[in-house]
Amino acid sequence: MNASPSLVTVNPTTASASVPAQLVAALLLGLVMLYAVGFSEASVAHNAAHDVRHATGRPCH
Fold this sequence. Notes:
With 61 residues, this protein is mostly helical. It has helices spanning 12-38, 42-55. It has 2 helices and no strands.
């Protein structure tokens, strides 16, 4: 049995190439979220945030 941990090698070119793609994906997700909240009614956005707080176990009031 081999007790030493196996090392994973990552090609630096591949790893650095995925960074812009991750940034673009994060930007698009953020814009979609802002767009959705911006055009929803205030009560809908409040209730969604309230439900998330309950689901994660955080106090809300």
